Amino acid sequence: MTVSSAPGKVYLFGEHAVVYGEPAVPCAIERRATVTVDPRDDDVVRVVAEDLSLNGFAVEYSGSTDEHPDVDVPTPLVEAAMGYVDAAVDQARDAAGAPDAGFDITVESEIPLGAGLGSSAAVVVAGIDAATRALDVELSPREIADRAYQAEHEVQDGQASRADTFASAMGGAVRVEGDDCQPIDAPSLPFVVGFDGGSGDTGKLVAGVRALRDRYDFAAQTVETIGDIVREGEALLADADAEAGADPDEDLLEALGELMNFNHGLLEALGVSSRSLDSLVWAARSGDAYGAKLTGAGGGGCIVALDPTPETETALQYTPGCEDVFRAELATTGVRAEDGEVRDE
Ligand SMILES: Nc1ncnc2c1ncn2[C@@H]1O[C@H](COP(=O)(O)OP(=O)(O)OP(=O)(O)O)[C@@H](O)[C@H]1O
Ligand SMILES: C[C@@](O)(CCO)CC(=O)[O-]
Ligand SMILES: [Mg+2]
């Protein structure tokens, strides 16, 4: 049996624009998905994913998505829901040259689904690591990131960047621009996450931005301007030259917060915010956060704010429609074995 975990993430800046080659800075956070894999003697894949509740049903099915799942919901819904796990299994089989490998898989996760915290990337990254190790293949975190990106790309109909999967596989703060993915040094940023209880469909939201961008030059320019915000933010982080994990100074937080606010405004213009996300963003700002923005694909789910004091958490807790508030620590480790195996670096 192999067990692997991988973290979710928040975007300091740059979601959506990163899909079109602009840079982005996602940061891995200490909320993890854990995948347990037991190899089988046959070619069946059996997945237990209790968090995956469709119309109130937990999904458990056998035989990859080719066989009829044992739940009382329409097959296309289950197929859509299981897409990421299936894609991770395909990548692991491919990496091991074992197209007929069967597995019993259990997915457990602390990351709300479809809420902008990268649950899909964490499940895919942890799934590929656990399933390849179950087949006696050890991939480096970069190789896992690359395969996890292929999986997300496939499930999201060709509309995915490397950002979520790279952050989840490597941990820490990272910078992604097209195929260029690098870890970066960032101070310990005081992230506060507010969750509206909702979710958005990443593939659909990305398709919506693409349509706007194809239709209007000013939407294409908006995407480029998000890239400018990211470049400005990176320069601030580089100038601050803070040691990874050090406490950031107030000037840096103020400047980063201003850029986050600007970034949120442009995401809103691109149609990926929502009434409740906007309301959480404004609650965080009135709670004295340095800045606040939606994180991830949007449509519903989470916002991220910067505040070292408890004020933003308190303001969010008292905001109608806010289901959960928590402080998100930077996850310094990306994908890792939870079964005692030590990775060769
Ligand atoms: N615990 C889980 N068990 C099984 N599948 C999961 C789990 N968590 C996430 N997934 C898969 O990931 C999908 C959600 O991915 P999606 O990309 O829409 O949102 P996200 O990754 O949480 O947010 P974002 O991409 O905006 O950061 C779920 O529909 C499911 O297919
Ligand atoms: C919206 C998006 O930029 C981030 C989703 O967390 C999509 C992607 O990068 O694949
Ligand atoms: Mg996702």
Automatic annotation (TrEMBL):
A single GO molecular function term of this UniProt record: ATP binding
Domain spans labelled GHMP kinase C-terminal: 253-312
Superkingdom per UniProt: Archaea
Domain Galactokinase N-terminal: 3-38
Annotated InterPro entries: Galactokinase, GalKase_N, GHMP_kinase_C_dom, GHMP_kinase_C_sf, GHMP_kinase_N_dom, GHMP_knse_ATP-bd_CS, Mev_gal_kin, Mevalonate_kinase_arc
Enzyme Commission no: 2.7.1.36
Subunit (UniProt): Homodimer.
Stated name of the protein: Mevalonate kinase
Record organism: Halogranum rubrum
Gene this protein is translated from: mvk
